[in-house]
DNA sequence: ACAAAATTAGGACAATCGTCCTAAATTTTA
DNA sequence: TAAAATTTAGGACGATTGTCCTAATTTTGT
């Protein structure tokens, strides 16, 4: 198989496994098995566990950037922000099982004192800056970044509690509350 | 040394290490080294990793129950809830470094598909029920549990974001916002 | 079609994992 | 104080970890 295709397959499976089982709990053998290649082949593409983690983070950064771009198709900032809020519903099943991929990875890497922790947090930064842009467009000026961080935090909390209790009712109620909050924030500045 | 004292010391160090480095990343050797005993001795007190995890969860449940009892010394429900909100400030340094002990453990155990996940989430339940009692005393009736879960989720989100960015300013701003929210919730029903 | 390069498989490696065992040291009991 | 019970140390165990090496296979470039 061509280099890029195998690499991409490895990254894809590693991405899933890191999310579903955690970074530390996922071994080279696990990834190789999932892809269906030998550990030797795996090592030819990624020469250390740090390398594959880096690649997965790159992948997530790119995927997030693409998603944010797609949300830009909406003209209204409040509609864009609504798209963000609704990932909690879109990915409901996986979030209830494994939490938020961004939050859980940064948390794990913080505990491991891993150098890639800050890079993993850059996914948050993509969301933060994009959300801040939307709040800015809604006329919130200097408050925009705070509002963005507030919304990110709310989402993270919902993901943590929804997965702790595997409680769909809670998740839906909190998403509704978040939508109400967004309403308050947008109408206040009209 | 007496049985209970050694056991207690092991539980104490394991509790810290599970919090600081994660459950999976903490080995028997790590705990034994931290306590200053041999692995053999360790194994005499806890015959499996599942056992020591169970003991740590028991310990956290008991510690949480004691903390909630101590907060009951305050007569006003809003003052009690304020005590809960302010753990984010009391444990600020550790939360910014390692996140919330309850949230991060339940999240990790969910990914590991560990049987103890639901037991670990019982610490949340202690907080939830206690908080619901306070909201009930404030006259929120059927909404009490939802309010309790909402507050728990908000706290969890703050812990996740504060540790991801190690941002004290964010943490303090969000705690202030939570106090404002509490004000709104208490004055609405006066 | 042939040489060069890239990809793959499979195993070796030292270290560490959780677990278990035995024997010495210590404490408790009678 | 002697016997019994508990606590401790230290190492053995098979499995698994991340890493690395070699040799075979496949793809690529000419």
UniProtKB/TrEMBL annotation, chains A, B:
Organism the protein comes from: Roseovarius mucosus DSM 17069
Domain of life: Bacteria
UniProt xrefs under Gene3D superfamilies: Tetracycline Repressor, domain 2
Domain (HTH tetR-type) ranges: 4-64
Residue range(s) of DNA binding per entry: 27-46
Keywords: DNA-binding, Transcription, Transcription regulation
Name recorded for this polypeptide: Transcriptional regulator, TetR family
Gene Ontology molecular function: any one: DNA binding
Entry keyword annotation includes DNA-binding: yes
Taxonomic lineage from the root: Bacteria, Pseudomonadati, Pseudomonadota, Alphaproteobacteria, Rhodobacterales
């Amino acid at each position: 198989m061509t280099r890029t295709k195998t690499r991409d397959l490895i990254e894809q499976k590693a991405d899933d496994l890191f999310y579903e089982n955690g970074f530390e709990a996922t071994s080279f053998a696990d990834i190789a098995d999932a892809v269906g290649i030998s550990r030797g082949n795996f090592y030819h593409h990624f020469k250390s566990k740090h390398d594959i983690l880096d690649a997965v983070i790159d992948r997530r950064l790119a995927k997030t950037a693409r998603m944010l771009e797609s949300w830009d198709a909406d003209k209204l900032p409040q509609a864009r922000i609504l798209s963000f809020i609704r990932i909690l519903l879109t990915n409901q099943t996986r979030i209830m099982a494994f939490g938020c991929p961004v939050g859980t990875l940064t948390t794990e890497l913080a505990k491991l004192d891993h150098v890639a922790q800050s890079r993993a947090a850059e996914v948050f930064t993509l969301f933060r800056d994009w959300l801040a842009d939307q709040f800015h467009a809604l006329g919130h000026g200097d408050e925009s970044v705070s509002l963005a961080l507030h919304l990110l935090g709310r989402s993270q909390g919902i993901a943590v509690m929804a997965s702790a209790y595997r409680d769909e009712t809670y998740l839906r109620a909190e998403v509704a509350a978040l939508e109400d909050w967004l309403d308050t924030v947008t109408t206040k500045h009209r």
